[in-house]
Amino acid sequence: MKELIRTNDPTVIAFVSALLQGEEIDCFPMDVHMSVLEGSIGVLPRRIMVADRDLFLARAILRDNGIDLPEGG
To answer: Which InterPro entries does the UniProt entry name for this protein (predicted)?
Structure first.
């Protein structure tokens, strides 16, 4: 699994998940339950992981939909 995106914005996580599922790319959100440790203030980023084989296509889908990826992403 490779990290596709990391963000503090839960709406971006939901949007990215929906985009990937629409293209039949399996994704796995990580760090979703970290709010228990942080007190629900949204400080700790959440990540979306995809299979190594899907990383290139998933990055292209995000770029095509206007989601900024970090440098090298």
So the answer is: DUF2007, N-reg_PII-like_a/b
Q: Quick one: which H or E segment has residue 30? A: strand 27-30
- With tokens 């949007």, the residue in question is 15
Supply the DSSP symbol for 73: -
Structure pTM? 0.81
Which stretches of 1-73 are DSSP H helices?
A: 10-22, 35-38, 55-64
Assess contact for 25 and 11: CB atoms under 8 A. Answer: no
**Joined tokens for residue 55:** 């990383």
pLDDT of residue 69: 82
Both tokens of 6, joined, read 């990391």
